[in-house]
């Protein structure tokens, strides 16, 4: 037993925000599951770009695929590689899935960022990837954009587990929580089972502070008369925002609407804390794990953050601590004109743009590094 096991015991499932062929083949994921109580894995285009764009781990697989599929499109070649990694991770996590009766043990694969604003294309791709991976403990990642919400409802209604990604604001989270429930209600109305459908809502944390703190520092440097009040908010807005989202979640799962689904065996769509690596060296490197611990949540950590938490994390019920203080931080941010709503809107756009660039780079690397014979 260690701190990551203790984290899981408090209700925050430790997931790894990383996947890589050599890591999987060397038994790295298996070790984390056995020793640290790891219960899930997330991937995204940026992670695959780092994994596939360098080294030789994928060369033999790609050569075999190219021999069998001459002239295949680069995106199909990428998907073949990614799906193999995702299947391997899902199989490693399958005992967790079985032990927890489908409540955990998931690996996430994202739809193409190119279609983030296309509902129908997102639905079609979610179904294609679900069929290709063919594992019950797969989650399809769908961005929480306005176009993503109806895609989430349709995908859940089709019996597919969904990880909603790129959530920054309470309003966006509420929209996708409603979409998840609508999908479950649609299935239930058709007499279809809903007890083994899992979902998470990935709420991004550190990126909010990175933008907020920069704005605060600029105003303080310019001699803003509210300098002291501004400085008091440094490193606090993202955590306050997350606590407000969790408070809403608690009210939502207590509602009659949710309880009707729970009576049919529905699992709650857990809040997942993403972007939990600390970007400011002035903050503890475990800040966005220590402060976001509570029942029915997930924290997906990059390897560096996971290592730091294993070594010096702090485990206590922090999500429900001083919620009034969190609301005060958000009220102060509004009073001081820090425009959290505007920041979160831009972060969604930036997040999609970053994933598009990573996907461009990834496909470019595959095309360049592994040209067709």
Q: Structural class from helices and strands?
A: alpha/beta
The number of helices is 17
Question: What is the radius of gyration computed over CA atoms, rounded to a whole number of angstroms?
Answer: 21 Å
The main sheet comes to: 8 strands, parallel, barrel
Q: Termini distance?
A: 50 Å
Contiguous uncertain segments of 5+ residues: none
What order do the helices and strands follow? HEHHEHHHEHEHEHEHHHHEHEHHH
Number of DSSP-assigned strands: 8
Major β-sheet strand ordering: 1-2-3-4-5-6-7-8
What would you call the shape? Answer: globular
The helical percent reads 55-70%
The average pLDDT score comes to 96
What portion of residues belong to β-strands?
A: 5-15%
């Amino acid at each position: 037993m260690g701190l990551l096991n203790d984290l899981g015991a408090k209700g925050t499932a430790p997931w790894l925000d990383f996947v890589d062929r050599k890591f999987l083949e060397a038994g790295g994921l298996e070790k984390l599951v056995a020793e640290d109580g790891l219960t899930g894995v997330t991937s995204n285009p940026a992670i695959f770009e780092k994994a596939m764009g360098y080294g030789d781990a994928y060369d033999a697989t790609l050569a075999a695929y190219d021999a069998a599929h001459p002239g295949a499109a680069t995106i199909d070649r990428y998907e073949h590689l990614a799906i193999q990694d995702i299947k391997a991770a899902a199989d490693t996590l399958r005992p967790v899935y079985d032990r927890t009766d489908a409540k955990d043990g998931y690996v996430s694969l994202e739809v193409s960022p190119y279609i983030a604003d296309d509902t129908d294309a997102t639905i079609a791709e979610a179904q294609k990837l679900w069929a290709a991976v063919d594992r019950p403990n797969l989650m399809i990642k769908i961005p929480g954009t306005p176009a993503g919400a109806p895609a989430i409802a349709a995908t859940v209604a089709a019996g597919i587990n969904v990880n909603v990604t790129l959530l920054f604001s309470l309003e966006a989270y509420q929209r996708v929580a409603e979409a998840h429930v609508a999908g479950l209600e649609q299935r239930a109305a058709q007499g279809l089972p809903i007890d083994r459908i899992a979902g998470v809502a990935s709420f991004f944390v550190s990126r909010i502070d990175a933008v907020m703190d920069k704005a605060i520092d600029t105003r303080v440097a310019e001699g803003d008369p509210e300098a002291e009040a501004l400085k008091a908010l440094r490193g606090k807005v993202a955590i306050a925002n997350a606590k407000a989202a969790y408070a809403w979640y608690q009210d939502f799962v207590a509602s009659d609407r949710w309880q009707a689904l729970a009576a049919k065996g529905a699992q709650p769509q857990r809040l997942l804390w993403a972007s939990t690596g600390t970007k400011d060296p002035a903050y503890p490197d475990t800040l966005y794990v220590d402060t976001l611990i509570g029942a029915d949540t997930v924290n997906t950590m990059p390897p560096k953050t996971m290592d730091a938490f294993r070594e010096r994390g702090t485990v206590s019920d922090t999500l429900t601590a001083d919620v009034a203080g969190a609301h005060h931080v958000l009220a102060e941010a509004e009073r001081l004109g820090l425009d959290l709503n505007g920041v979160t809107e831009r972060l969604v756009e930036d997040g999609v743009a970053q994933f598009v660039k990573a996907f461009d780079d990834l496909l470019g690397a595959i095309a360049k590094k592994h040209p067709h014979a």
